[in-house]
Amino acid sequence: MTPRKRKRDETTSSKISKTEEISSETCLDQPGDQSIHEVVNDEPSTLPAVHYDPDTTEPISCSLKSLDELLSWKRNEASPFNVATVPLASRLPPLDRCPRRTLVSHDMMGGYLEDRFIQGAEQEMPYAFYHWEYIDIFNYFSHQMVTIPPVVWTNAAHKHGVLSIGTFITEWTDGAKICEAFLADEESYRAAADKLVQISYCYGFDGWLINIENVLSETAVKNTGPFLRYLTDQMHERVPGSVVIWYDSVLKNGSLNWQNELNDDNRMFFDACDGIFTNYNWTEQSLERMKSYSAAQGRFADIYVGVDVFARGKVIGGKFETNKALELIRKYELSTAIFAPGWVYECHEKADFRQNQDKFWSLLSEYLYIHRPSSSLPFISSFCQGFGKSLYWRGQVEMERSWFNLHAQEIQPLYLSENMEKGGWLKSRGCSEDAWIGGSSLMVEGVIPSGLPEVCARIFSLHVPLATKTFVSFVYKPPVGVKVSLELKTIDVPLCTFNGTEEIASTSVFPQALAEDNQLVEQFVQNCGRWTSDGWTSRCFLLKMIGCSLREVCIRLSRDEGDEDVSFNCRIGEIMFLDAESLHAPLQSVQGICVNDVVWQKVASNEHEHEHGHTMKVLLNATLRWQYSTQQVRHFRIHWRHLRGPDPRIRSGPLTVIGRSYSTLYRVVELEVPAAPGLIELVVEPVSREGFRVPEDRWGRRTLSYSSSGNP
């Protein structure tokens, strides 16, 4: 369960990993009713260091650094751990109907920091993005030639309906040589494009930013347009909904000369792909020219006007004045590309990160669309931002240590900041001091001013068709002197054909809490199991509505008595909307669990010789795979226990949690096991999205016996 500090150095290796196909065959070779046998040896890992940390064998995300690496890339050498498992969620408005889009280009300290550790890392205050409702496209940027987005980012983006795109970049003299090679002729540029398409398709992300920042020869620039057109067409065919965007750099004559706008000198590249990301030194006159430019007509949304948040060079806005740039860009009805918003993290105290990030996006919010998640039931969020000071499950600490894993990020709420008359105010923010599930909860705080009986905090804007009977669970810590209730806003289903950009009149619903002895509440509690409250309050509601969709979720806070100003802090732990019928639905069993890519390590014990005389610790590293519908789970808990050790008098041990997985794949890393010979059990426990307990007879189990080399 313990994530550790990781080394920053990333090494490369030409060793070939086992393919997913070979691993699947290995699974077929492991009948479920038989134990696997392994021999403990001192052989070094043969796993490729580009995909697995060379010291620990932890799975990591990585880039490709050369044209040779790109052209020699093979699907059967890809990392199965870096494949996105979260499909792109629906949202309103969808990308193709959003007239003014927002792209975020995440460039931070060279990239592939703690976010490269696919199963998470220990970090006290990491950088995480969580204002997904404002943006359309997330670009992972680095100066390595083929920047493949770490899977943690793609899954987090997809969960919120945001596209995740990588970066293909060439720079300086070396970049010019690369371009001369892959843009030499049609066969060469098609070969490079085909690999980019295959990589995007394999890893499950949604396109590319193409950034050529070096001079091109006459031949190379002549082939750049056809390369872009071919890449874009192939991406659209293989990855529906994907985008290819060109960065404003090279001109049609091959010279490197940033234009800071779309014009005749770079139009040929814009015409060949899905959009252009302009350089940052534009003026209002640049925007005026683009607005009237003939090639831009009908494609204003495809012009992403670049804004450098670091405000390098002669730019408008940037830093906490980025809103000034957005105001002008939106005035001319253009899209925007916000470069390096991690400035709020890099250039300020890490302890103030949340505060500064919320301030930054609050200043921009006037110029950004709020996108609504559009999904069927269930709709569930415990507000986890993907990191925390501890890891919680139903209000109890599972792991008391700082952690970072964007796979754990749940659907994010609206983070609002609102001032009212007479000194009243209202704010919502993520808080890691306490949580219901994950690493953070939603803190709603403010002042109910004199003369106002209540305030209302909108925490979600969404589009979720309700069932005939919809069960609602709401977990919170009630503040002193303030009553907490829900206000839900709904619309009729016939209005669901709108394109998502206009406002629609809604109806407010104020649900009344069900009694604890209500049959549905009792069923819900039975499914979840009893829990220690520790200050948390759980309320359940039943909505009986026909032909309605949930539009907004609001928290109402009203004063208990009196008319003076009332301050409050209300911690929201979780909210769930479920089809009431699902409370009776059976949960499936884990199938086909198998173990492969086993690596043994023997390390000196820090302790004195114990009673059995062993001074070396035996560490197991192995990959677990299994079959289960990931749409039904929040995560999987991975357990282990020893069944039999070198001393037969020692009884079997208890199940011990060693980690969480957010897919049907998990790498056991440096698990200390009893000295050989021994027999251990590895167990996979599914944790349902609703938090319902899955009976142990439906967990996945695999026993592994092992002996010393030379001993059967």
TrEMBL record:
Residues 112-390 form the Cytosolic endo-beta-N-acetylglucosaminidase TIM barrel domain. CDD domains: GH85_ENGase. Residues 8-21 have a biased composition (Basic and acidic residues). Its main location: cytoplasm. Coiled coil: none annotated. Keywords: Cytoplasm, Glycosidase, Hydrolase. It is found in: Cytoplasm, Cytosol. InterPro entries: ENGase, ENGase_C, TIM_ENGase. The keyword Cytoplasm applies. GO terms for molecular function: mannosyl-glycoprotein endo-beta-N-acetylglucosaminidase activity. It catalyses: an N(4)-(oligosaccharide-(1->3)-[oligosaccharide-(1->6)]-beta-D-Man-(1->4)-beta-D-GlcNAc-(1->4)-alpha-D-GlcNAc)-L-asparaginyl-[protein] + H2O = an oligosaccharide-(1->3)-[oligosaccharide-(1->6)]-beta-D-Man-(1->4)-D-GlcNAc + N(4)-(N-acetyl-beta-D-glucosaminyl)-L-asparaginyl-[protein]. Residues 584-707 form the Cytosolic endo-beta-N-acetylglucosaminidase C-terminal domain. Its EC number is 3.2.1.96. One of its GO terms (cellular component) is cytosol. The keyword Glycosyltransferase does not apply. Residues 1-38 are annotated as: Disordered. Endoglycosidase that releases N-glycans from glycoproteins by cleaving the beta-1,4-glycosidic bond in the N,N'-diacetylchitobiose core. Involved in the processing of free oligosaccharides in the cytosol. Belongs to the glycosyl hydrolase 85 family. This is Cytosolic endo-beta-N-acetylglucosaminidase.
